[in-house]
Fold:
Amino acid sequence: MCGSAPSNGKGIFILVKTSNPSSTQISEAVNNNDTVMNNLARFVNEKGISIVWKYGYSPIGAVVGATFPAEAKQLRQIMYNNFF
Structure:
């Protein structure tokens, strides 16, 4: 999924939720009975669990807009071992 980045000591970031006010049109759209952002967050977490670096964090991070604190808190619960 993330190629050779982790094996070369590098990481990647996946866009989960932007800070743009209109981002809700995509991130909060429903797909598979849940929002796109929650599905992306679970994907980031699932892929990250298999690759854990020092201090328990994954080299797979997430871009999460800080202008939506309630969503950021919810996403932190899903992606507990990923950098934001």
